[in-house]
């Protein structure tokens, strides 16, 4: 809110300086100045109101993705960057679960940054996730924020809810030879943390050959790490990520692009691998979004 107001105020001041240098008479300059003040105030109020409304209202993003060798269609519902803590509370999660259950997913995946507070404060909200309904279950990978709040405890508690935490391993979704590998790695923040480090080679060893592989990796930037750790990404058909929030508040999306290769949406990274970046189901910091709505992603694989 402060950033948006500050940006609009700067534009207001620049225009005001320009008005003072015009050749208009004083009364005419005063009229334009008053009109500018009223317009600027209206824009500030409207922009902030819209940004807060965007944060509260979660949009559905439907995406169709073709995977080679997938013999049966599947529906994945992806959540990401919920950031339980503060304004993201038990009621928010309960309402979110109700929205997810309407979608009748084959599986639900949560791609990191689920918890952003001390675990004791998050448990009541996390408990609501037990009510998610899908055919093949709910799966989770840690994001960078879990490392700040005792990642080991969070992993243990989420597993206790019946939600499978993928820790450099994979599960097979669907009937034999008609499904796909769902793999997941720790977040690349683990390199700095010194433990819970992503290991793609260990992860892929657990995957069934001749079936497509969907990899959960919190940060889109991890796709760059893969280029150093693997000869190629031919064994990874699709990566599902989050982390970026789509920039959350314009124009931060341009700053995010300096750090991450992709900010939002579906991209064909190379001949073998596609990547989809969820803009985040919750928010971080101020309860505002501008130019990047909160989302629940419905991924239809075929």
UniProtKB/TrEMBL annotation:
GO terms for cellular component: membrane. Transmembrane segments: none annotated. One of its GO terms (biological process) is lipid A biosynthetic process. Residues 75-246 form the Calcineurin-like phosphoesterase domain. Keywords: Hydrolase, Metal-binding. One of its GO terms (molecular function) is metal ion binding. This is Metallophosphoesterase. It comes from Arcobacter porcinus.
């Amino acid at each position: 809110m402060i950033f948006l107001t500050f940006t609009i105020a700067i534009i207001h001041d620049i225009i005001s300086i320009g008005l003072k240098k015009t050749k208009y008479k004083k009364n005419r300059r005063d009229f334009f100045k008053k009109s500018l003040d009223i317009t600027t105030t209206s824009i500030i109020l409207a922009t902030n109101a819209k940004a807060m409304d965007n944060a509260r209202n979660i949009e559905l993003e439907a995406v169709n993705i073709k995977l080679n060798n997938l013999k049966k269609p599947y529906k994945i519902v992806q959540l990401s960057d919920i950031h339980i803590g503060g304004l993201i509370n038990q009621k928010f999660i309960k309402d979110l679960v109700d929205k997810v259950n309407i979608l009748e997913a084959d599986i639900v995946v949560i791609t990191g940054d689920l918890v952003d507070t001390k675990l004791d404060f998050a448990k009541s909200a996390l408990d609501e996730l037990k009510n998610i309904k899908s055919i093949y279950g709910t799966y989770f990978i840690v994001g960078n924020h879990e490392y700040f709040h005792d990642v080991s405890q969070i992993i243990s508690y989420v597993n206790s809810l019946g939600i499978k935490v993928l820790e450099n391993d994979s599960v097979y979704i669907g009937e034999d030879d008609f499904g796909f590998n769902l793999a997941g790695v720790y977040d690349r923040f683990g390199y700095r943390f010194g433990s819970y480090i992503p290991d793609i080679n260990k992860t892929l060893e657990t995957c069934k050959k001749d079936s497509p592989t969907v990899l959960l990796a919190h940060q889109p930037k991890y796709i760059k790490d893969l280029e150093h750790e693997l000869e190629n990404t031919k064994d990874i058909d699709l990566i599902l990520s989050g982390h970026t929030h789509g920039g959350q508040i314009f124009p931060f999306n341009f700053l995010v692009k300096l750090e991450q290769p992709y900010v939002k949406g579906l991209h064909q990274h190379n001949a073998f691998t596609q990547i989809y970046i969820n803009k985040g189901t919750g928010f971080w910091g101020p309860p505002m979004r501008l130019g990047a709505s909160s989302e629940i992603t419905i991924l239809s694989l075929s």
